[in-house]
Amino acid sequence: MGIPDIPSSAPRSSQVEPAKPLPSYRDVKQLPAQLLDHCTVCLEEQLFSQAIPLLSSAVTAGKGTIRPAYVPPVQHLSLLATLIVHPSMTTRTTSEEKHQAADDALQYLRHLNTITSADQSGLNKALQFRDSASSRSKRARTRHSDISSDDESEDPGRIRSTYADQESLFANAEDFWAVVGWAFNCSVAHSHRWSRWQLWLRLTLDVLEDDLESRYYTIRDSGSTDNQLLKDSLLAQYLASFVDSGRNTKRRIMRAILADGKQTSLNQFPEIWRNETRPPKAKPEPKTGSKRTLDLDQGDFGDYFDSDSDAEATTPTATTPRPSRRASTRPPSNKPSRQPSPSTPQTPPTTNQTHGPPTSLTLRLRLLTLLTRLSTLAPTLFLDPEDLFDLYTEFLRHLPLPVFSSFLLTPTSTTNPGSANPAFDAPSLASLTQMLLRPLLSSAAPVYNANALTPADFAAHFAPFAAGSGSVGENARVGVCVEVLLRLLWGQGAFEGLEGEEKEEVRRAVGEGVRAREEKVGGGEGRRRKGEEGAWEVLRAGGERMRWVLGEV
Predict the structure, then answer these.
(1) What is the pLDDT of residue 450?
(2) Structural domain range at position 206
(3) Which helix (H) or strand (E) holds 452?
(4) Is residue 536 part of a domain?
(5) Residue 324 maps to a domain
(6) Which of 21-30, 91-100, 224-233 is the most confident on average?
(7) What is d(CA 349, CA 402) in angstroms, rounded to the nearest whole number?
(8) What angle is formed at CA 373 by the lines to CA 357 and CA 123, rounded to 5 degrees?
(9) Is residue 309 part of a domain?
(10) Cα 416 vs. chain centroid, distance in angstroms?
(11) Each residue of 347-380: pLDDT tens digit?
(12) How far apart are CA 168 and CA 133, in angstroms?
C-alpha cells in the first residue's frame, strides 16, 4: 500500500473526490422594490447603520424554512465588500460608527455566503475585478450627464456612492492578485492594515472554495464532462488572464502569495488606496493664549490666514499607485486594530516573521490549496498539477528555513507527529514534497519515477540520504521533506501489514539519513557556525519526531 502521486495528466473532475461536503443552500430572490429603494438611499447617504441591518433582516427572514433569501443587486454587495477594508472606514478614522459599519458589512457577507451559493446570490460577480474600473467609470459618466439613458433608469442595481465608484476596491485594484500581494505585504510591514485585509481575504477564500466545490458537485451529479461550469468559477476568472501567458507572467501569482513586505515586493504590490497606511488625522489642538488684534488698516488680519498643514490628499488614484512607506511593526493582537500608533519604533522582521504571523501562513496555504484543487479538477484552466507543483517548487525551496518548514509541517503536524499537512491531500503533498526533494538530494540518491510511493521506495530513494551540499540549511530542508513523506505513509496506513523485516528496513533507512545529514554538516557542536542555531534545531527536532513515528509503526 502506498501514496499515489498525481500524474501530469490529472483525472477528470467527475473522478475527483470532493474536498468537503456541499452545504444546503437556500434559493435567492431579489429584494422587493420598495425595500431595495430604501436600502439604496441609506447606502448612498452613508447611513450604513440603517442599511446593513435591513439587508441582514431580509436575508435571514424565514431561517430554517424553505423560504428564499432576499438579496440586493451585485453593486450593493461590491460596496459592502469595499467597506470591510476601506481605510476611511477602518484604520484612517476614529469613528466607532464607521468601524461598526465595516464589521457589519463583513458579518453580512459571511452569512450570505453561508446560506446561499455564490452564483445565485451574485457574490461571485460582486467580487470580480475584471473590467470593473471601466464599467464603474461608464456608470459614473452616465449619472453625471443631463439625460439618463433608458437602460440606466431601468437598472435596479445602480447606486450613487463613492464606495461603489472611484473609491471601490474593485476599481482601484489591478486584479485579485494585486490585492493578495498587498495584503500579505501588510502582514509583515503594516500590521494595522493586515488586521482588516486578513478578514477580507478569509471571506473571499470562503467564497472561492464554496463556489468551486458547488460547481464540482453539479458536474459530478449530472455526469457531465464539460468543464464550462468550472471555467465560470470565480477562481478560474481570477486566473483567466494568465492561462495563455508564459511562465514568467504566472510567477506573479506566486510572488503575490509569498509577498514578504520587502521593498521589491512593495514595489510590485503597492497599496491599493493612496495613503492607505497612514493613521487617523489627529484632532487639532485648541489654540491658547491671547487673541491677536484685528487691524485691517495696519494689515494685521489676526488669525484669518493661519492655516493647518494637514491638507493631505486622501482620494485614491487607480492609475498611478505608489509604493507605500513601511509602517511600524507591532505584535499581533487578538482584536483587530484600526488605530496604529505612529510612535511605535520600526524594527526589521526576524527570521520567523519574514512572512507574517500564523494567520498569514494559513491564508497563503489556502491559496496554494485552491490552485491545486482547480488544477486537479480542470488541468486546462490554468496549469496541470505537475506544472503547478514545478512552479511551487521554484519559489518554496528558496524560502527561509522556518517558513519552508511551516509550509510543509504545520503547527498541528509538528505537535502531533502522526498527522499530515491539512492544507493538501495526501497525493498532492507527496508529489510536491518529492519535487522539492529532487534538486536537494545528493547525487547518490537513485532517481524515483514511480506513480505511487511505498515504504520500500521511501527507504530506497529518500530516507537514507543527505543533501548534495554541506549547508546545514539544505540538509534541514531534506530532513523536513523526508519527515513529511514518513508522516504521509504512516497516516495512509502504508505500514500496516508489512513484515517485521520490511519495517526494520524503513527504521534503518531513516536512522541512516538522520546521521548522514548531521555528519554532512559537521556533526559536533564545535563545528556549528554563528547564525546556524535555528537550522540545527530544525534538523535535530525533525530527527527526534521521525524516531517517535518509527516507534509507533
Answers:
(1) 77
(2) 3-141+159-257
(3) strand 452-453
(4) yes
(5) no
(6) 91-100
(7) 13
(8) 75
(9) no
(10) 25
(11) 333 335 688 899 999 999 999 999 999 999 999 9
(12) 9
